[in-house]
Specification:
Oligomer: single chain
Distance between the termini: 29 Å
Strand content: 15-25%
CATH architecture: 3-Layer(aba) Sandwich
Helix content: 25-40%
CATH superfamily: Vaccinia Virus protein VP39
Length: about 250
């Protein structure tokens, strides 16, 4: 399930490539985004799994102490397609100076309100990632977003443009497999686990395709980790990439 939808051209004018229908879909969910039993309940279950990977990747990339409470202290972080801030807030608690960008103004408004309510100083901006003059960041995250954009090649190039020298990019996305079509689209929508119309299976990206997109943007992809599900474990990091996966990327 996507956190949000946003895309960017790489031309100097920052051409508009956000899919309006996708932005409207996710913006309509802004009101109850922080309700763990609401329409974004699946994201609340997915977020701790992502964070487990993110924390390990941060520690490995910068040689941080695994016991440190703020391994991102003194570093900047950008979450692209931030929704209402489910990932931005943990990144801020890890010490980062955080910016969240999203296509839907409803989402950034909800994110800013929630951050203020819990005492976190996070900058939220609605708009086209390639068109925003926001500089570069040590950490760039993009969770369940690339499958929603109008131009995946241009979008990845825009993400790479936001990455500071020596920086780390982390992405997660559903894999395009028969298993994901059955479970993440048909079954999940039929059972009400995600809102109808959230996923379009044809837009899912395989690890091989993502590796190529990243390479075209001058980035090297790390070894992907699957995000699987079982009745006993629930959502968890796995060696099985069939449903969903998460990866790091750095400059080649």
């Amino acid at each position: 399930m996507g956190d949000a939808t946003i895309s960017g051209e790489t031309n100097s004018s920052g051409g508009q490539t956000i899919r309006p229908e996708e932005a409207a879909h996710f913006g309509s969910l802004a009101r109850d985004w922080w309700d763990p039993k609401g329409s974004s309940a699946m994201l609340h279950k997915l977020n701790p799994v992502r964070l487990q990977f993110v924390r390990a990747a941060i520690d490995a990339h910068w040689g941080a102490d695994p016991e440190s409470l703020q391994p991102l202290a003194g570093r900047s972080a950008l979450d692209v397609g931030c929704g209402a801030g489910l990932l931005c807030e943990p990144l801020a608690r890890l010490g980062a100076d955080v910016t969240g960008v999203d296509a839907a103004p409803e989402n950034t408004a909800a994110a800013a309100q929630h951050a203020e309510g819990v005492g976190l100083d996070i900058r939220y901006i609605a708009g086209e990632i390639a068109a925003l003059d926001i500089g570069t960041f040590d950490l760039v995250t993009c969770m369940e977003v690339i499958e929603h954009v109008a131009d995946q090649h241009a979008f990845v190039a825009a993400l790479a443009d936001r990455l500071a020298p020596g920086g780390l990019l982390i992405l997660s996305t559903p894999n395009r497999t028969p298993q994901s079509q059955l479970l993440l689209v048909r079954a999940a929508e039929a059972l009400g686990a995600i809102p109808k119309g959230t996923h379009h299976w044809d837009d899912f990206v395989t690890p091989e395709e993502l590796r190529g997109l990243l390479a075209d943007a001058g980035l090297t992809m790390g070894e992907p980790r699957g995000i699987g599900f079982s009745p006993g474990k629930g959502l968890h990091l796995s060696g099985d990439l069939a449903l969903n996966y998460i990866v790091t990327a750095t400059r080649a």
